[in-house]
Amino acid sequence: MIRSTCENALQVIRKAEQDFILDPEQIIEKSYHMTTVLRNVLSTVKKNVIEKGFSDENEEINFFKTIKPQILGKLIFYNKVFRIEASSPVVSGKMHHKHYSNELNLLKQEFKEQFYNTDFYRYYRTGRTEWDHHFFCLGKIDLHEGVNSFVFEIDTEFSTYYDYKVSRIIANELLYKYLVSKIEPDKDETMLFAEDKGNSRDFFWTDSKSALIELIYALHASGSISHGKAGIRKISMVFQLLFRIQLGDVHHAFHRMKDRTESKSIFLDQLKSSLKQHMDKEI
Questions:
Q1: Of 39, 135, 155, 277, which sits 20 to 30 A from 182 (CA to CA)?
Q2: pLDDT tens-place string over residues 172-219
Q3: What's CA 47's distance to the chain center, in Å?
C-alpha cells in the first residue's frame, strides 16, 4: 500500500504552495524552489512505488491517473514559470506584454498539436473510465497506437505513458491561467496557484468530481449565486480554485447525470439525508 506515501507527498506540496506568492520580485526564486520541492517529492514517491508496488489494479489506476499527474503536472508548470520569468526582458511595458503573449501563443499551438481533437484528450476530459485499465496500468503501452517516440525514454516501472499526458494537460491549464494573469492583471488571477495563508492548507474537496459538478449545477439552477446571473463556467472556476481540483468538461459530466437510471441527483439526495441525520443527533 502506498496510500500514506501519496497523502504525505500531497501534504508536502500543499504546505510548500501555501507560501508561494506570484510576486514579480520573488517569482524566479519561488518557482525554482517549488521545482526543487516537487522533484524531491516525485523521487520519494517513485522509490516507494517501485519498492512496494500496488495492492490492486484500482490503486494503480488511481495513482497514474490522479496522484502522479498532480505532482508531475505541477513540476512541469513551476519549471516552465521559472524558465519564462528568467528569460523575461523587462517587468512591465510593451516588451513585457509581448513576451507573455508569445508564450501564450506557443502554449495554444502546443495544445493544437498535442491534444486538440485527440481521442485520449476527449476520453480524459469527459471523465470516462472504461479504458483506465489500458491507459493507467503499467506494461500496457501499444506501439500500434502510434505513440510519441518519447515512450522509448520513459521508465516503464514508473510510467504508463498516458500519466505523462495527463500531467501535461494539468500543467498547461495552470500555465494558461498564469500567462493570462500576466497579460491581463486586472483579472486578478495572481493567486490561482497559492492557497490562503490562513487555515486552508487542509481545505480540499474529498468527494467525487461528479458530486461537486452536481452541486455547482444545483446552485446555478436555484439562482443562489449572484442572483442567478453567474454562469456555470464562472461558478465552476471558483470552485476549482477554492478546492484546488480539476473538473474537466462539466457540461459533458452534467449530461451524463441526466441519463442516470435511478436518481439524477445522487449527491444532493445524500447531502439532504446527511443533514437530516445530523439535525436529529442535535435534538
A1: 39
A2: 988 988 888 888 765 544 444 444 444 444 567 878 888 899 999 999
A3: 23
For the CA atoms of the chain, what is the radius of gyration?
A: 20
CA atoms of 74 and 171, how far apart (whole Å): 6
pLDDT for the residue 191: 45
Q: Residue 138 gets which letter from DSSP?
A: T
Q: What would the mean pLDDT of 110-131 be, rounded to a whole number?
A: 83
d(CA 110, CA 104) in angstroms, rounded, equals 10
pLDDT band at 79 (very low <50, low <70, confident <90, very high): very high
Query: What is the SS3 assignment for 19?
Result: coil
Cell numbers at residue 8, please?
504525505
Domain ranges in the chain are: 3-187, 209-282
**CA 217, 221, 222, 228 torsion: positive or negative?**
positive
The Cα–Cα gap between 196 and 182 comes to 20
At residue 50, what are phi and psi to the nearest 5 degrees?
A: -65, -40
Biggest CA–CA distance in the chain, Å, is 65
CB atoms within 10 A of CB 206: 7
Between CA 103 and CA 118 the distance in angstroms is: 23
Residue 85: closest CA among 36, 27, 30, 38: 27
